[in-house]
């Protein structure tokens, strides 16, 4: 087992140290109310802010959210533009409020296709929050799990193919050596991974909910964490209940 695998059992309190969320269901939420899909993304952004605050309050060390996948470029241009505008709004607010919230922000994904303004704000957010210790929020933008693994292989090759083990290879991922997610939450009813954190989710507990992301509130997160706390994580060994 990799050394990192031993850290996967979650925090000492029994709460997950690292929660990952596929923020899905914004479009259906909007459609149900007769609103354009972009209104769903706006409500989804509010839900993300609420969730990040709640995770910080609970003492969750890492929150990693899937905001825009490498596949989401297939959507209509006006929807993609609307999501980009919301991202800019979020980053502007984050830059304004970060000294108060003290949360470290990291962006995982290839920012090259984004506008220079969006890229600049992403870089600023990461740089200005780098020393904060009030938890870490990782926002996956133009992120794909397969893309991340291919990039890791390229970084390794560029370093001259040094001796490799699982931990070393994992350190080439966007998150570097942060602990893997303990709990993956997918609201929105779909039961698939959709190219999210393919390497890091190896031993995550999976929690699927039919609640659409804009409606996923503190009580829903409590339910997910309670389900997680009731699981026995065995990592391939024989468990206490066996
Ligand atoms: C997730 O919500 C947000 C992004 C993928 C950007 P969706 O937009 O996928 O919402 P549904 O799944 O169509 O309801
Ligand atoms: C996954 O949701 C991506 C994000 C939430 C950013 P999608 O809505 O894109 O996934 P599929 O298409 O249902 O698999
Ligand atoms: Mg979706």
Largest sheet report: 6 strands, parallel
CATH class annotation:
Alpha Beta
Estimated helix fraction = 40-55%
CATH arch. level architecture: 3-Layer(aba) Sandwich
What integer is the average pLDDT?
95
Number of helices: 7
Ligand inventory reads: 3-methylbut-3-enyl trihydrogen diphosphate, magnesium ion
What general outline do the C-alpha atoms trace? globular
How much of the sequence lies in strands comes to 5-15%
Q: What is the number of strand segments? A: 6
Q: Ranges with pLDDT <50 over ≥5 residues?
A: 1-8
Strand order, main sheet: write it out.
3-4-2-1-5-6
The CATH topology turns out to be: Undecaprenyl pyrophosphate synthetase
CATH superfamily: Decaprenyl diphosphate synthase-like
Q: How many separate domains?
A: 1
Content-based structural category: alpha/beta
Element-level helix/strand string? EHHEHEHEHHEEH
Our measurement of the CA-to-CA distance between the termini, rounded to an integer number of angstroms, reads 21 Å
* Gyration radius, in Å: 18 Å
Describe this structure in words.
This protein has 242 residues and is of the alpha/beta class. It has a single domain (17-228), classed as 3-Layer(aba) Sandwich (Undecaprenyl pyrophosphate synthetase), CATH 3.40.1180. It contains seven helices and six strands. The protein has helices at residues 26-32, 37-58, 77-101, 116-129, 145-158, 166-170, 218-229, and strands spanning 18-22, 62-69, 104-108, 136-143, 183-186, 205-208. It has a six-stranded parallel beta sheet with strand order 3-4-2-1-5-6, sandwiched between helices. Strand 3 (104-108), helix 4 (116-129) and strand 4 (136-143) form a beta-alpha-beta unit. Helix 1 crosses helix 2 (37-58) and helix 3 packs parallel to helix 4. The longest helix is centred in the middle third of the chain and has 25 residues, at 77-101. It is globular and about 50 Å long. One 3-methylbut-3-enyl trihydrogen diphosphate is lined by residues 22-24, 66-69, 72, 190, 192, 194.
């Amino acid at each position: 087992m990799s050394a990192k695998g031993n850290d996967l059992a979650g925090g000492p309190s029994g709460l997950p140290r690292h929660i990952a969320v596929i923020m899905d269901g914004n479009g259906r939420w909007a459609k149900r109310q007769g609103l354009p899909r972009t209104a769903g993304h706006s409500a989804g952004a509010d839900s993300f802010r609420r969730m990040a605050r709640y995770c910080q309050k609970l003492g969750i060390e890492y929150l990693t959210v899937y905001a825009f996948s490498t596949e989401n470029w297939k959507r209509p241009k006006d929807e993609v533009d609307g999501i980009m505008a919301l991202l800019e709004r979020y980053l502007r607010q984050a830059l304004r409020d970060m000294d108060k919230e003290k949360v470290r922000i990291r962006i995982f994904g290839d920012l090259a296709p984004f506008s220079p303004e969006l890229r600049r704000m992403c870089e600023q957010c990461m740089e200005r929050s780098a020393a904060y210790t009030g938890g870490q929020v990782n926002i996956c933008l133009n992120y794909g799990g397969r893309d991340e693994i291919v990039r890791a292989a390229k970084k390794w090759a560029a370093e001259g193919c040094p001796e490799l083990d699982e931990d070393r290879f994992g350190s080439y991922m966007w998150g570097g050596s942060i602990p893997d997610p303990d709990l993956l939450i997918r609201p929105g009813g779909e039961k698939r991974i959709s190219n999210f954190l393919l390497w890091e989710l190896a031993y995550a507990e999976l929690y699927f909910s039919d609640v659409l992301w804009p409606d996923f509130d503190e009580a829903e997160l409590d339910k997910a964490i309670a389900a997680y706390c009731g699981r026995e994580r065995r990592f391939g060994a024989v468990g206490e209940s066996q």
